[in-house]
Amino acid sequence: MAQRLLDVQNLRTHFFTRSGVVKAVEDVSFYLDEGETLGIVGESGSGKSVTSLSVMRLIVPPGKIVGGKLLFQDEDILDMDEDDLYNLRGGKIAMIFQDPMTSLNPVYTVGFQITEAIRAHLKLDKSAAEKRTVEMMDRVRIPEARGRMNDYPHQFSGGMRQRVMIAMALSCNPQLLIADEPTTALDVTIQAQVLELMKGLAQEFRTATMLITHDLGVVAGTCQRVAVMYAGRIVEEAPTKTIFANPAHPYTQAMLTAVPRPDAERGARLETIGGQPPNLVNLPPGCSFAPRCRKAQPRCLRERPLLETVGPEQKAACFYPY
Q1: How far is it, in rounded angstroms, from Cα 10 to Cα 264?
Q2: φ and ψ of 14, to 5 deg
Q3: pLDDT band at 264, cuts 50/70/90?
Q4: Sheet with strand 63-72: strands edge to edge
Q5: Which of 179, 184, 305 is nearest to 233 (CA)?
């Protein structure tokens, strides 16, 4: 039986701006077991990326984690000192960001950057670290890896830069990999290659993965479980098959109907989700999705539903699920 690796409990991350307090993440709870892949989905501004940055404790002013617990192997990340955080980031938990060009330093070769990460966390000498770098670049299928160690980020294509980031992230054998929209800037063919690569390497190294995305197609092919976020909260959580076969929350249902289907009639119009996400500075008193929900009742506008069990391994924050 897989052991619990990450346990996020009632996480609250706010941004204190001149316009007011932006409740970017509010009362978010989820878990991740060893070797498991969890997809966190939702439209832009739903709190996905802030959640991932909170787990790494990379929130900077005016943002602040104001409540909750981040238990990694039963130790609260929020209680760690700087030395513990240094060992955690890149060592036990690694992160892949959506734009590898801004994540890689343009003035250093990719080989140097991967090697330095390995030396910092695995305590290898230069020769051993460089050997490990070549091995990881080979693993992510970068052609002529040894020769390309001396190339700079701008000499790689977008897909190859993302492979460099994957090599760097997995080079220190992390137990948890956080991938924040890792294929957003890539074309469809390269997306599929990168996702398949991540999936294979995660299985090989028994690395748990938290995949942040707005693309439900990506989730369908890579994740065992899914957490759906809306307006800073998780509104549904279930195994991936359940999410696609029997979504409980109206927001999840609306997202799925907005996805293009290969079996749709020619000329058929895509469904859309009417309205706009709420202002996180001034959230409505009831369910945040109620103003856009076709099933909304008067109660939905007054009371906020809690995330509760609605089926086997399925939770939803809705008074009228299904």
Answers
A1: 40
A2: -120, 155
A3: low
A4: 20-33, 4-17, 63-72, 75-76
A5: 305
SS3 per residue for 132-182:
HHHHHHHHCCCCCHHHHCCCCHHHCCHHHHHHHHHHHHHCCCCCEEEEECC
Dist CA 239 CA 150 (whole Å): 43
Q: Which residue shows structure tokens 């939803």?
A: 316
Residue 55 tokens read as 């787990």
Q: Where are the beta strands (DSSP E) in the chain?
A: 4-17, 20-33, 37-41, 63-72, 75-76, 93-96, 176-180, 208-213, 225-230, 233-239, 308-311, 314-316
| Pairing mode of beta strands 208-213, 176-180 | parallel
Closest CA to 63 of 49, 74, 73: 49
C-alpha–C-alpha distance, residues 264 and 54, integer Å: 40
pLDDT digits (tens, 9 = 90+) for 132-183: 999 999 988 899 999 999 999 999 998 899 899 999 998 998 999 999 988 7
205 has a pLDDT exceeding 90: no
Closest residue by Cα to residue 225 from 208, 243, 207: 243
Per-residue model confidence as pLDDT tens digits over 26-57: 999 999 999 999 999 999 999 999 999 999 99
Provide the token pair at 295: 């099933």
CA angle, 196 then 200 then 201, to 5°: 120
Spatial contact of 83 and 137, defined as CB atoms under 8 Å apart: no
Contact 151, 159 (CB under 8 A): no
Residue 207 near residue 29, CB atoms below 8 Å: no
- How far is the C-alpha of 133 from the C-alpha of 115, rounded, in Å? 6
What is the rounded distance in angstroms from the CA atom of residue 269 to the CA atom of residue 101?
Answer: 36
For residues 162 and 284, give the distance between their C-alpha atoms in angstroms, rounded to a whole number. 39
